[in-house]
Design a protein that fits this description.
Elements lengths: L2 H13 L3 E2 L4 H8 L14 H6 L4 E7 L8 H18 L4 E3 L3 H9 L3 E8 L8 H9 L2 E5 L23 H13 L2 E3 L5 H10 L5 E2 L16 H9 L3 E4 L3 H4 L5 H15 L4 E3 L20 H9 L4 H19 L2
Parallel strand pairs: 1-2, 2-4, 3-4, 4-5, 5-6, 7-8, 8-9
The structure holds zinc ion.
The site of zinc ion has 4 residues, from loops.
Amino acid sequence: MTFKGAVMAETLHYDSIVVDSHCDTLTAMPDEGRCLAGPSAKGQLDLSRLKKGGVNVQFFSAFIDPDYKLTALHRALELIDLFYREIEGNNNVVLHAKSMLDIEEALSSDKIAAFLSIEGGEALEGSLGILRLMYRLGVRSITLTWNGRNELGDGVGEEKTGGGLTRLGEEAVVEMNRLGMLVDVSHLSENGFWDVLSVSRQPVIASHSNCRALCNHPRNLNDQQIKALANQGGVMGITFVPDFLGDNPSIAQVLAHIDHAIAVGGPDCVGIGSDFDGTGSLPTGLEDCSRLPAITSGLLERGYSENAIKKVLGGNFMRVIGQVIK
Ligand SMILES: [Zn+2]
């Protein structure tokens, strides 16, 4: 890239609203003995590096590791408490966003908008009442399953059962539509994916999933899924996890997944869902969240218009958040 090109990429990146729909920083921080403020030599994401990476809206996931299956609600609440403490302790640079208005406030005061999500519907322990309380606690997105089975449905690791959503899973989707929460189909079995699309009256997201046509991994979406997600107005966050990128995990491969998703679903269905702090290794040049401008440079080099790049960087997720959460 020429010097002029690099300046253009930088200007475009920092002028855009950048949204990252998934990270596992809440679970990684305590294990690594670090806090959210940063900058830290450990881990892949903190507030200081998010600023450097030009990120405006970051989803923070309370991930229910299978080790906590029997105490899933307890685990979720502890992670939510950690989220609250970290956000309050850094309220000069970050705010807990529960609405579009909150995001606008963050943008206008140069703060990062932190979105709280849950990864693993087992946290609801089978109760729509707990779902409603999670909404009150400020949770605005739920990844319905992780890889295994829970009360809401079967994850991708259970594909042999042919299972999709349970009846409770369907009710949870309807209730999330009503409350104004994002339904996240990443990790869900393919049958579960189709169940969600037939039940949901709102667009849904796949917060961190790539294209199966380029990397045949069950965590990725096939072309029919991408088309259907796009037709319903949904967005998939392209993730940087090497296992979901393919044989040659690299920035070029991340860009290839973006290309493919756009070719199949159009420019309105693609975003970024890094999974920072949820993966041990990352492509060279994308080692942490401060490196996100590399995506903008890569998209410019591939000839995308500024408008299309802005959509991928965050415009598409902003549209869905505006529609579903308000
Ligand atoms: Zn995940």
